[in-house]
Design a protein that fits this description.
Elements lengths: L12 E5 L3 H4 L1 H12 L3 E5 L12 E3 L6 H14 L5 H7 E2 L1 H8 L4 H8 L3 H13 L3 E5 L1 H4 L4 H14 L10 E3 L6 H6 L6 E2 L3 E2 L3 H11 L11 H9 L5 E5 L3 H4 L3 H9 L3 E6 L11 E4 L8 E4 L4 E5 L12 H11 L9 H11 L8 H4 L4 E2 L23 E2 L18 E6 L15 H6 L5 E3 L1 H6 L7 E5 L4 E8 L7 E5 L27 E7 L2
Parallel strand pairs: 1-2, 1-5, 2-3, 4-15, 5-6, 9-10, 10-11, 16-20, 17-19
Antiparallel strand pairs: 7-8, 12-13, 13-14, 16-21, 17-20, 18-19, 18-21
Length: about 525
């Protein structure tokens, strides 16, 4: 997030797109509701009629994968009505003219034809966002999990800059992370192209810095993304896979293809707190401890690094993640001898400039937000206050592209996947909870009443849902949350695995699969 969670309460306008916030980020949704109580305008754009839609000043259900067209359409209207922040653009941004030339072609009638959003709603959305400052944009994986995910995010940034909403309190571009330490994992270099603090591995000075810190020559080339890994396994180029705190058997797209890839490995290692579907296929399983059994830090969605303190001693034959990794590394010839998590954190601060001023002693109960460059620095509430990190904010001229797979005569429905309120990710933890499991014990497919009537499907009937990758049988849930022609399946349930169906086509830059849209067919099961 460019801004902080607490700032949401003081936004004059909140635009939520690609995020079922009240179901998936309920504590952040509370801030949204508080902002509404204070008079904030709320815009919600989601292919489904989510709970927040009922509280919105304007809510739209755009066609799956049409986000770039929607955002370009909003910016077209803002420019046409002279609602953009000219001074901000002149002083703080560049490449505006090329951007404007593209956006001017996205007229309301053109955008309505692509997105199914009525022109009057587009006009209202644009007016609310542009004329109520500061305005905050919240988004999640409904924006990123597309073959055009990077284009979607760049378009959101264009909109925020167009109205001067970056580098201001209670404004900003605010992605809501999908899991509790995704931000921290990325900060620590858990990406194939960067060292900690997003220092590119291809820059020689960075490579030399970390080689010196770690006492080992390092490769200067970019590694595999997850989608690259699956392809490399199939091709026999990747022989071993070490999975830590992840369950790709349920979370990765085109599950049948993934199973074939895993079967080609010489070695699969899993490290987790539960025996997951992926662990069932592993050659070696390392038992890790839960959050209650360890010390360390997490960094959350607002860049806040927080201390976690062990409440109980580890249960059974388990070890901290850092201990397992250290022992394995030492056994393989690179010795790791850390005394405790604090020793690791001290090393982090020496090689990670954005964490340089953090210490366990300074964190207290509330932690510190990066960048925190020195021990006198209080942490950074919101980013880009004086200028953008790169100097000037860069406008991108982006054209709309269709998703990789569109409905046709054989597969006439749009299918999307996501989360539901009671369960979390692949259900590894929540389905082990008796109370949460009681809320929803199996998967389901949401189908509009009109489509259900045409298929002679009643609520609770078992249906066969198929795409070009495979098929599942799942109970039908007749619901007005989806529009005619749209189906929704939650992905938490191994017995009705949504990712048997999803498309492994991916964004060419970020390599994120297109989980959120594919073509499907549905029929009543025999």
């Amino acid at each position: 997030m460019t801004n902080s969670i607490a700032e949401i309460e003081d936004s004059a306008c909140i635009f939520i797109t690609g995020s079922n916030t009240s179901a998936c980020h309920p504590l952040i949704a509370r801030r949204v509701f508080r902002a509404k109580e204070k008079g904030a305008k709320l815009i919600v754009a989601d292919p489904r009629n989510i709970q927040l839609s009922r509280f919105a000043d304007v809510a739209v259900t755009q066609r799956l994968g049409s986000d770039v067209a929607m955002l370009n359409g909003l910016m077209h209207i803002i420019l046409k009505n002279d609602w953009h922040d000219k001074r901000y653009i002149e002083e703080r941004c560049e490449e505006f003219d090329a951007f404007r030339a593209v956006v001017e072609t996205y007229t309301p009638d053109k955008v309505e034809a692509i997105t199914d959003i009525a022109q009057a709603d587009l006009e209202k959305m644009a007016e609310l966002y542009a004329t109520n400052s500061p305005a905050s944009i919240l988004y999640a994986m409904g924006i990123t999990q597309h073959t055009t995910g990077v284009d979607n995010v760049k378009s959101i940034c264009n909109l925020a800059m167009l109205c001067g909403n970056v580098g201001v309190k209670s404004g900003g571009v605010n992605p809501l992370r999908g899991q509790n330490n995704v931000q921290g994992a990325c900060d620590m270099g858990g990406l194939p192209n960067v060292f900690p603090a997003y220092q590119p591995v291809t820059v020689e000075a960075n490579n030399e810095k970390f080689a010196k810190a770690w006492g080992k020559a390092l490769p200067g080339k970019i590694g595999y993304t997850i989608t690259d890994m699956v392809r490399a396994m199939i091709d026999g180029k990747l022989k071993a896979l070490y999975v830590v705190g992840e369950n790709p058997m349920l979370s990765d797209p085109d599950q049948h293809h993934l199973v074939k890839a895993l079967e080609k490995l010489d070695l699969l290692i899993c490290q987790d707190i539960f025996f997951t579907e992926t662990a069932e296929k592993a050659d070696v399983v390392f038992a890790a401890v839960s959050v209650a059994e360890k010390d360390g830090t997490y960094t959350n969605t607002e860049r806040r690094c927080m201390k976690v303190n062990k409440a109980i001693d580890p249960i059974g034959n388990t070890l901290d993640d850092w201990q397992i990794i250290s022992k394995l590394s030492t056994a393989m010839g690179y010795e790791m001898n850390y005394a405790d998590p604090e020793a690791i954190f001290k090393e982090i601060t020496t090689v990670t400039p954005s964490y340089a001023g953090m210490t366990y002693g300074r964190m207290g109960l509330n932690g510190l937000q990066w960048p925190c460059p020195n021990t006198e620095h209080p942490g950074t509430q919101f980013l880009h206050a004086a200028q953008f990190t790169r100097g000037k904010g860069l406008f991108h001229a982006i054209e709309y592209l269709d998703p990789a797979e569109m409905p046709d005569g054989e597969y006439p429905y749009f299918l999307t996947t996501g989360r539901m309120f009671a369960h979390y990710h692949t259900g590894t933890m929540t389905r082990a909870s008796e109370h949460l499991d009681a809320e929803q014990k199996t998967g389901y497919v949401e189908i509009h009443p009109e489509d259900a009537a045409n298929l002679s499907v009643n609520d609770g009937d078992t249906v066969k849902l198929a795409t070009r990758r495979g098929e599942i049988e799942v109970p039908a849930r007749i619901s007005n949350k989806v529009k005619p022609g749209l189906l929704f399946v939650p992905f938490h349930f191994a017995e009705n695995s949504a990712n048997i169906l999803t498309n492994s086509a991916f964004d060419p830059v970020a390599k994120i699969p297109e989980y959120k849209v594919c073509a499907a067919k549905i029929e009543k099961a025999a």
